Write the structure tokens for this entry.
Amino acid sequence: MANSKSAKKRINVTAKRTLRNKMIKSRAKTAVKKVYAASDAGNFNEASSAFILAESAIDKAASKGVFHKNTAARKKSRLAKMVNKLN
């Protein structure tokens, strides 16, 4: 258990940041799942519109430091390749 005032504050700040990061990461993962679902169904129009939303969610996660920028680029690249393969 934390004894000092600063240690108690760090626990609170860490809990708040963890919750924020979890929300951002969950939003991005959900958007990616929608792209995969549309792709598995073979629906190019739905997959491409879902890809735009997923790309935005991944970029936001990367800008907030939840994803590393190279991880975000890799995820977007793989999604784009998958969507383009449908066309």
Notes: The radius of gyration is 17 Å. Helices lie at 5-41, 44-63, 69-86.
